[in-house]
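User: Reviewer 2 asked us to show a designed sequence for the structure in our supplementary figure. I'm pasting the structure tokens here. Could you produce the per-position amino acids so we can include them in the response letter?
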């Protein structure tokens, strides 16, 4: 089952999803606790990844004259909101009046103003060829470890979302899994 789409630039759509997700997390406290526990592991993976991001990726992005960071990539989807809720993070206010192709509103002079676990998943896993090429060329062992951690992050995220689907069916009043 797919989750509802959050419409870019629609504050009501974003808030509706937040409310529904928060409510679903109250429907089965045992499952919600399991999801919160899984999210702690996910946060640990984010923490393990951070030095790689700082050392290799942010360095290249700071030098870039045409950053890939645009609003449409920073806007969360439904699954991002599930992860934020599980982590206890609150996706901050998003200025929905800005165009989706404008530079991301969270992009500051020193890079993103959000912590890694507060960003949409697209912001975490997307890297241009220049970043990958430079990172891999500078330190192949570190790059291999980074790739393993990114795979781990992806799997942890999938596990949380699969668990949440059970809560989502309770929210919808269905028993189908």
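Assistant: Here is a per-position design you can include in the supplement:
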């Amino acid at each position: 089952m797919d989750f509802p789409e959050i419409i870019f630039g629609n504050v009501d759509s974003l808030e509706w999803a937040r409310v529904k997700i928060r409510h679903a997390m109250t429907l089965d406290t045992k499952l919600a606790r399991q999801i919160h526990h899984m999210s702690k592991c996910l946060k640990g993976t984010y923490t393990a990844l951070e030095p790689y991001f700082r050392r290799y990726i942010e360095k290249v992005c700071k030098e870039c004259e045409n950053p890939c960071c645009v609003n449409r990539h920073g806007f969360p989807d439904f699954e991002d909101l599930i992860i934020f809720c599980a982590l206890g993070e609150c996706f901050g206010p998003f200025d929905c009046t800005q165009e989706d192709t404008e530079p991301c509103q969270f992009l500051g002079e020193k890079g993103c103003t959000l912590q890694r676990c507060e960003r949409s998943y697209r912001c975490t896993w997307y890297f241009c060829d220049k970043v990958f090429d430079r990172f891999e060329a500078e330190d192949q062992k570190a790059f291999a470890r980074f790739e393993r951690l990114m795979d781990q992050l992806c799997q942890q995220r999938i596990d949380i979302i699969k668990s949440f689907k059970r809560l989502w069916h309770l929210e919808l009043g269905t028993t189908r899994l």
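For the response letter, you might also mention the following. The mean pLDDT is 86. The chain has one domain: 11-172.
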